[in-house]
Amino acid sequence: MGTFKVISLPKLNNLTPTIESTALKLMEEAGELAQAIGKFRGLNGEEVKMEEWEIIDRISTELLDVAQVAVSMMFVLEETYNIDVNEKIRKHIEKLKAKGYIKNGEPSS
Q1: Interatomic CA distance for residues 55 and 19, integer angstroms
Q2: Per-residue confidence of the chain (109 residues) as pLDDT tens digits?
Q3: Which of 13, 47, 51, 64 is 20 to 30 A off residue 79, Cα-Cα?
Q4: Is 30 inside any structural domain?
């Protein structure tokens, strides 16, 4: 059986996000992730002058930006539209189990 890891990200302060503004920010951050992967992996034809660890570090930084905005969007859904995030997560995990991605609540090895 695989291991179960939880990644928690905080609710950001001093912001008044909407579904629309958060969705646009999510697309922006996803674009930056794609750009980092393309550029730093040499997919755009440019010569890459970074070490592998630097490339992976930049990609992980962009990925966390995407994750943070996605988490922020869940807070917007919860606070503005009274969505039960815990229930949504439970249903999501059930969907993953049904598709065979996880067993007994843990990721497959």
Answers
A1: 32
A2: 456 788 888 888 988 899 999 999 999 999 999 988 888 787 777 787 888 899 899 999 999 999 999 999 999 999 999 999 999 999 999 999 999 998 865 554 5
A3: 64
A4: yes
Range of the domain at 51: 19-83
Over its C-alpha atoms, the chain yields an Rg (Å, rounded) of: 17
Domain count, the chain: 1
Residue at token pair 């660890």: 53
Give the 3-state secondary structure percentages of the chain, helix then strand then coil, rounded to 5.
60, 5, 35
- Does 8 fall in a domain? no
Distance CA 72, CA 42 (A): 31
Question: Which of 48, 67, 54 shows the shortest CA–CA distance to 10?
Answer: 67
Is residue 11 one of the residues assigned to a domain? no
Report whether 20 contacts 73 (CB < 8 A).
Answer: no
Beta bridge partners of 103: 106
